[in-house]
Amino acid sequence: MANKILVVLEQHEGKVRRIALEMLSLAQKLSAGNVIALTFGSQAEETREMLARYGADQVVALHNAVFDQYSSDGFADAVKQVQSAVGADVLFLPATAWGKDLAPRTAGLLGAGLATDCTAVEIGQDGRLVATRPIYAGKAIATVVIDSPVQMFSLRPNIQPVEETGRAGQLEDIVVTVHPEAWRAKVTAVRAQGGGTMELTEAEIIVSGGRGMKGPENFKLLDALATELGAAVGSSRPVADEGWVPHSYHIGQTGKVVSPNVYFAIGISGAIQHLAGISGSKYIVAINSDPEAPIFKAANYGIVGNLFEVVPAVTDAVRKLKTER
Amino acid sequence: MKILVMVKQVPDTATKVRVQPGSTSIATEGIKWVINPYDEFAIEESLRIKERHGGEVVVVSVGPQRVEEAIRQTLAMGADRGIHVKTDDVLDSQTTAEILAAVARSEGFDLIVTGKQAVDDDAAQVGSLAAVLLDVPQVTVVLKLDVNAEEQRLVAERELEGTIEIVELPYPAVVTAQRGLNEPRYPTLPNIMKAKKKEVRVETLEGLGIKPQLKVRIVALSEPPERPAAKILTGDPVEMAQQLVDLLHNEAKVL
Ligand SMILES: Cc1cc2nc3c(=O)[nH]c(=O)nc-3n(C[C@H](O)[C@H](O)[C@H](O)COP(=O)(O)OP(=O)(O)OC[C@H]3O[C@@H](n4cnc5c(N)ncnc54)[C@H](O)[C@@H]3O)c2cc1C
């Protein structure tokens, strides 16, 4: 029997992240016609058209205003009720901060096995799903199966293609009983974090600086290149530890694991912990004055040179390419 | 304030991971085992809470004989005593959480603090799963934690993509630590001496009434594909920059 896939996703002001569309596209590919999207908050219904277009056969919009503020225990309980009402045997959640908080909590309630941060999910020989997930921050790749009746997967952003399907996306009226007064962990406020506006884990291009940048004032060189490229800015760990950039920039085994189309490693030596966080990049460009730097072993394209000369030249070349087009 | 810290021993992050050919595990020869980096923040935070509010910090770790060394290290940092659930079994997050929940039930606790994820299996589940088993709330990926002992409540800041979320919750609860929460202390010599005399109780899975039954099973493990050798560009900075942009545009087709 075909899997019934419940795609659990977050929306803000009626908009969803790209990972939501990635999950729907993947779900549709695995189990056409059996994809249900679940979304929360008073503007949840506004996402219906978008979700349907990318593969939701049905949309469950829990538009009760209590869902405007996240609660791990409250939301997990609601997901459980919806899962049971629609009879889903597969759940997809995004491997974002939101999804990584909600997924294990829900898995615990459902007694379901959960594979975290998957980069691929396929149908195995026995009809159950088989997932690929990097472990040791990508230093090894595991193929995993889940041996519980309900199979759960959180999916790494920026990996799956999104495909439009042009579905109607029936709105499903599912009644969940909520007792918000019994919710224990509640979000009471949200504030913007210092740093770039573009999220590294979702960026198509990342321009990243290391200790070779010499000081915080020089990151404006990277900001200029990033602006031309429409890229996000990241960093190695020591640079964030020094306070040259916010902690949210830190990429690597103990920071963010990223998977852009292009990663520019600028003045970064390529320590194993850093490489672990960038191995999912399609292309890696290294700019470093030391021809022996290990980053060149990981790179597709390398420039041996002084970044203070090379980076402005690259910025100019990108600008030229854009004006020619 | 009784705080249980869950600690995992993992390969040092500098480890070059090698897969045992034909197996689902990594080659462990020559690996240096360390405390999971995120768990260090959990220990430090627990010690700070104890310093402020009094109480006891008990470290719990699951794994083979070598794990005792990790526990001793936390005792040298200042934890009061340790519990080592000794097993050579391969466990998944669910079983690990069941073990830790069993210990927590018999010990009792106000707070369980652990790292946001272990840097070996990267599953990021144990804290939340234990919270469900113990029916307590959770707050994960925490950058800042305030304990209000009078009202038995926590106010935590957690990191999201580009934003910080403020979460309030009552305790007993589970908290998972993110880098940035604090700066872990180094063991001092007197504390290292003292640690030798501190108690590390050994428990077994049978003793805790746990039969490991994996829900998530690794069926194959491989090393990531090697990247092709880099194209090293030559010329003056302007020429190299131009070549790079041409390659990214025409060959890689990403610009
Ligand atoms: C437990 C643990 C976890 C860690 N986790 C992470 C992690 O998640 N992420 C991470 O990044 N690191 C991590 N590290 C640190 C890691 O080991 C390295 O120390 C770090 O990545 C080095 O940062 P870097 O490349 O910026 O600096 P360096 O290694 O100092 O490299 C600077 C580079 O800049 C080049 N350079 C200097 N001047 C110029 C110039 N004018 N033009 C061009 N190039 C120039 C140099 O040749 C050099 O290669 C971790 C370490 C430990 C112990």
Structure description:
- The complex is a heterodimer of chains A (325) and B (255).
- Chain A has 325 residues and is α/β, with parallel strands linked by helices.
- Chain A folds into two domains: 179 residues, 3-Layer(aba) Sandwich (Rossmann fold); 125 residues, TPP-binding domain (Rossmann fold), CATH 3.40.50.
- Helices cover 29% and strands 27% of the residues of chain A.
- Chain A has a seven-stranded parallel sheet, sandwiched between helices. A five-stranded parallel sheet of chain A has the order 15-14-16-17-18.
- In chain A, strand 2 and strand 3 form a beta hairpin.
- In chain A, helix 3 crosses helix 4.
- In chain B, strand 4, helix 2 and strand 5 form a beta-alpha-beta unit.
- With 255 residues, chain B is of the alpha/beta class.
- Chain B folds into two domains: 202 residues, Rossmann fold (3-Layer(aba) Sandwich); 31 residues.
- The mean pLDDT of chain B is 96.
- Chain B contains seven helices and 13 strands.
- The radius of gyration of chain B is 22 Å and the shape is globular.
- A nine-stranded mixed sheet of chain B has the order 9-8-7-10-6-1-4-5-11, sandwiched between helices. In chain B, strands 2-3 form a two-stranded antiparallel sheet.
- The interface between A and B is large, with 97 and 81 residues.
- Strand 18 of chain A pairs parallel with strand 13 of chain B.
